[in-house]
Recover the amino acids of this structure.
């Protein structure tokens, strides 16, 4: 049985990052009740994007020494009566298990699945708990599985559209370059440049140099730019042909959207096209950044 002060020290408030995102997502006004819950009745957030939790032993020692000083946020588990699912705070929950606590203080509220997804992702992003690719996959899941536009997603997690688009661009990198980002999360800018090289053979030496810290992002940028400039004329012609074909497709789509906006009932078209234009503008900003 843990010492009584493990519960007495708990404050009925959200921690800094989670509290800020709860306010942002307008869920902090949900009716809340507080209780000390058996730790074995609490289950992880089923939508948790984070796969690894570091420094749990250190946090467990702090809990043993100082007590559990904040409340976790949970919801009743919709699949199992008498159990609960974490809304946020999984690292502290895991550390509390290591510390041997039998119960932990929690705030209980009726959160939706969307709340769990959004709060979990926003907490991880604000705390920088996800590596860039984990974050990108979670953001893409919002778009693919829940129909979010980039604009709505940015608003919901408190980031600008450019940030979202830059993260999503990582998923379009070749797999060898993605492995570099996983190994060196600080190499995103260099990885994007390397990803523009067409073959694994061209990318491999630069990937190895970046992974070992031998070259800077600025050096990579210069090397890649020189290689592109030295490409064969036939290769340049092929690139121009593909770009011209893509431009024609884009032009046709934009003309069709223009026609939709000129129709009598345009409210739905205005909203849908407005969101897609925001997404396109974010992609254009990424392209312009790559041209520098």
């Amino acid at each position: 049985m843990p010492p009584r002060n493990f519960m007495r020290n708990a404050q009925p408030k959200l921690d800094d990052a989670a509290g800020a995102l709860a306010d942002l997502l307008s869920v902090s006004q949900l009716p809340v009740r507080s209780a000390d819950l058996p730790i074995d009745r609490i289950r992880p957030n089923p939508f948790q994007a984070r796969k690894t939790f570091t420094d749990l032993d250190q946090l467990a020692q702090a809990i043993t020494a100082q007590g559990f000083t904040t409340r976790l946020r949970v919801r009743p588990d919709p699949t199992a009566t008498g159990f609960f699912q974490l809304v946020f705070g999984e690292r502290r929950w895991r550390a509390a298990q290591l510390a041997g606590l039998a119960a932990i203080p929690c705030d209980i509220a009726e959160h939706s699945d969307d709340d769990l997804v959004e709060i979990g992702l926003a907490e991880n992003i604000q705390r920088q708990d996800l590596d860039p690719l984990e974050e990108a996959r979670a953001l893409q899941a919002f778009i693919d599985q829940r129909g979010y536009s980039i604009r709505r997603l940015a608003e919901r997690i408190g980031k600008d559209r450019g940030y979202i688009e830059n993260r999503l661009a990582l998923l379009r990198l070749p797999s060898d370059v993605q492995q570099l980002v996983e190994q060196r999360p600080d190499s995103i800018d260099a990885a994007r440049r390397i990803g523009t090289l067409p073959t694994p053979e061209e990318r491999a030496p630069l990937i190895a140099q970046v992974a070992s810290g031998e070259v800077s992002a600025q050096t990579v940028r210069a090397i890649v730019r020189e290689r592109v400039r030295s490409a064969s004329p036939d290769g340049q012609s092929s690139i121009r042909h593909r770009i011209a074909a893509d431009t024609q497709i884009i032009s046709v789509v934009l003309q069709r959207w223009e026609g939709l906006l000129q129709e009598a009932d345009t409210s739905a078209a205005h909203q849908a096209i407005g969101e897609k234009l925001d997404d396109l503008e974010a992609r254009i900003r990424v392209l312009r950044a790559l041209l520098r």
Summary: The chain has two domains: 5-122, 129-291.
